[in-house]
Amino acid sequence: DGGRRIQFDEAPKTGVYSYDNSENWLSLTDGLYYIVPENKGFGYLTISTSEKGTINEGSNSIRNYAEDTAGNLWIATGNGLARWKRSNDEIKIYLPKPGRKDYLNFASVRGVVATGNKLIVAQSQGGVFLLDPGKEIFGELAYPHGADGDSVKKWLLSDFISGIFTLENGNFMVAGSQRIFYINKKDNLVSPVLFKGKEKIQYTRIIYEDRQRRLWFLGGPGITVTDGNFRILHRISDPKLNGIYTNSITQVADTS
After folding, report:
1. For a tag on the chain, would you pick the N or C end, based on fewer CB atoms within 10 A?
2. Contact, 115 vs 172, CB < 8 A?
3. What is the edge-to-edge ordering of all strands in the sheet holding 109-115?
C-alpha cells in the first residue's frame, strides 16, 4: 500500500514497484523478488515451491499484489490468490472453487488492490470480489439499484478481465475486453465507464494515469488517451499494429 508502479513489462504479469521506505519489488512469472537497500537485503518468494522443495498447487506467475492493514501481502497468481504473512513467513493459498458465487471460482487472478480495510480481487473471468482479509470472506461489490445494476453486474461477470488499476484519487478502474468499469473507493460501487461520444474502447490490457491526469488505455486495437472525464483526446491506431498488443507505458517527463 503506497507503492508507486514505475515500470512494467509484459504486464500485468510483471511489475516493478518502488516504496517510500526504499524497498523495491519485482513481480515476475516465476516469483516475487524484493530488495531492501537499508540492510542490503535481497529476497525471492515462490508460491508453488517451498524452501524445502515441497510442491503445492500454487502458481509462481505473479500478476501483482497488495498489502492489507495487518501488513500481509495478498498476491494475484495464475492459480488462485496467495496470502504471505510476513510476520511468520507463512503462505496460504486460496484455490478456486468452480461454480461458487461467494468464493474464488476461476483459477486466474488478474489483480488485487487495497481499499480501506478490504481488498478488491479481480479474476480473469467470473467476476470481481470484495475480500475481508481478516475474516477471509469473499463478498460482492456494490451495484446500482434496479435493472441498470443488474446489467452492470452481468457485464462484469461475463467480461474477460485483464487487470485492476488504482487512480491518483484512490478510485479504481477495471480493464475488460468489452468494457471498462469504474469502482468508487467510498462505497465500492461499480459503474461502466461511458466515453464521450459513445465510443467504445475494447480489448484493454493496461490503464495508465499520467502526471496531467490523462488516462491511457493500451490494448490490441491501439492506444486511446482521454481526460479525467473520459473525453477522448487522442487515438493512436496504426494498421501495421493491428492485432499487436501494447503492454507497457511510463512517463519520463511532463511532455514525454
Report:
1. C
2. yes
3. 109-115, 118-123, 128-132, 137-139
Place of cell 496470502: 83
Judge contact between 230 and 195, C-beta under 8 A.
Answer: yes
Closest CA to 94 of 120, 61, 58: 58
Least Cα distance to 61 among 39, 31, 91, 81 occurs for: 31
Query: DSSP per residue over 37-67, as a string?
Result: GGGTEEEEE-SSB-TT--B-S----EEEEEE
* Distance between CA atoms of residues 202 and 199, nearest Å: 10
Residue 166: name the closest of 105, 227, 233, 119 by CA. Answer: 119
CB atoms within 10 A of CB 9: 12
Dig out the grid coordinates for 139 from the structure: 463478498
Mean pLDDT by 10 residues, the chain (256 residues): 42 48 57 64 62 55 87 90 88 91 93 95 95 96 96 95 94 95 96 81 89 90 88 80 70 86
Does pTM top 0.85 for this prediction? no
For residue 160, give every residue at least 6 positions away whose Cβ sits within 8 Å of its Cβ, in sequence order, or none: 124, 125, 176, 177, 178
Alpha-carbon distance of 162 to 203, in angstroms, equals 9
Tell me phi and psi for residue 197, to 5 degrees: 90, 5
Measure the CA–CA gap between 210 and 224, rounded to whole angstroms.
13
SS3 string, 179-212, reads CEEEECCCCCEEEECCCCCCCCCCCEEEEEECCC
Partners of residue 142 on adjacent β-strands: 189
